[in-house]
Amino acid sequence: MDILIRPAEPTDYEPLGEITARAYLNDGLLAFGDEDDWYFQELKNVAKRAESAEVLVAAANDRILGGVTYVPSGGPLAELARPGEAEIRMLAVSHEARGRGVGQALVQACIDRASAAGTGTGLVLCTQPTMHTAHRLYERLGFTRAPERDWKPIPGNDFTLLTYELTL
Predict the structure, then answer these.
(1) 67, 49 in Cβ contact below 8 A?
(2) pLDDT per position as a tens digit, 15-70
(3) Torsion angle, alpha carbons of 125, 130, 133, 138, to 10
(4) Within the chain, how many helices (H) and strands (E) appear?
(5) Exposure of 168 by Cβ count < 10 A (0-12 exposed, 13-18 middle, 19+ buried)?
(6) pTM (2 d.p.)
(7) What angle do CA 84, 87, 93 make, to 5 degrees?
(8) Who contacts 159 (Cβ-Cβ below 8 Å, separation ≥6)?
(9) Residues 6 or more apart from 7 whose CB is under 8 A from it?
């Protein structure tokens, strides 16, 4: 399958939002577990992300297979990036396209963007402890765990996100 990675266009926002939100919901990755979860709505809102970050889509045969939000160094959507680091957020691949290299192509596109920027020192992302397939992907692409940067995004909740970083 030939996978094309390209910037998301406004016509991609709705299908990518649906893929992303459904992937997190169906994989049990939402803290409150249903469509009423506040993060479910954030995941669906691709237009909002596209206003302040670069949203990329993976497509094949004019069909959206998945997407990722690339936050350049200093971008307002960064949650844990330090000065000089870019950040990857909200990586998702449709259930039907999993296991075909879509996630890897999306992450590699982010690595390529961060490297090409020439101003940064690295790339960072957070992931949930149960996302073992994603962990293997990140490690295969050279990311390493940075446990000292793990964090709890929900005050008063033990829910912890793991941090991975890649030095460029």
Answers:
(1) no
(2) 999 999 999 888 777 766 667 666 888 899 999 999 999 999 999 998 999 999 99
(3) 20
(4) 5, 7
(5) middle
(6) 0.92
(7) 160
(8) 31, 152, 153
(9) 54, 55, 56, 57
Q: What is the CB neighbour count within 10 angstroms for residue 98?
A: 14
Mutual orientation of helices 132-140 and 102-117 as an angle, nearest 10°?
50
Residue 144 pLDDT class (50, 70, 90 cuts): very high
pLDDT of residue 74: 87
Q: Are 35 and 82 in contact (CB under 8 A)?
A: no
- Looking at residue 5, its amino acid is I
In 3D space, the residue among 50, 132, 134 whose CA is nearest the CA of residue 92 turns out to be 134
**Among 158, 160, 159, which residue's Cα sits nearest to residue 145?**
160
Question: 95: which 2 tokens?
Answer: 């259930």
